[in-house]
Amino acid sequence: MSSFQPHDIIAPVPGAPGANILIVADHASNHVPAGIDLGVADDVLQRHVAIDIGVACVSRKLCQVLGCGAVLAGVSRLVIDFNREEDAPGLIPAVSDGIAIPGNAGADVEARLAAFYRPYHAAVAASLESIERPFILSLHSFTPSLASRPEEVRPWDIGILYNRDDRAARIAIPLLEQSGLHVGDQLPYAGTALNATMNLHAEDQGRPYLGVEMRQDHVGSDMGVRRMAEALAPVLLTCSNRLA
């Protein structure tokens, strides 16, 4: 796997000098590097199982508005899921929301860790080390419904996730509600169960962060991206000013 290039791993966005906010997006791409055949139809790569829809666009808009930087994953979560521990189930998924990923059967886990996972997390770590008193936005999106759990209702516009460190969450939730958004606290997921990247780069290091899940059908257009960025930007600044 030595032939893979850096753009197969990350798509960095440089921040302005002195900017202390860094956006980290684990699932910003649906790219499948050459040499890997997942065995799925092309349309699967356009769905939530392969990419957090809207995340790359909202991240870049926030970078433009705030002058902050970002580290955007350049590999689909179907190749390897950067937001899981190295030994976690589902790191290289065999099935995602009821869709079989036959090309992952018998995958060389160590090779994908070495080619993608570890360089990605090294890039996140290096970016954070280059920032004085960083504040992190961990940005994801969620689908309004899952094929595997059709009975589950997901009405929120945005969800705020955290594990042990809820400092930014307690600041952000009321501010986002005041902006008119329907906000989920530890919804549609709980950060206590799925928070690997922020556990590693934020909580274990004592760095403040905000974990955000946006409803993907609200950020699938230019207008939706702009509205979400406008809602998030002042909240990020407030969190950063109070905590970083």
TrEMBL record:
Pfam families with a match to the protein in the record: FGase
Taxonomic superkingdom: Bacteria
Stored Gene3D superfamilies: Zn-dependent exopeptidases (3.40.630.40)
InterPro entries found in the cross-reference section: N-FG_amidohydro, UCP029730
Name this protein carries in UniProt: N-formylglutamate amidohydrolase
Top-level taxonomy: Bacteria, Pseudomonadati, Pseudomonadota, Alphaproteobacteria, Sphingomonadales
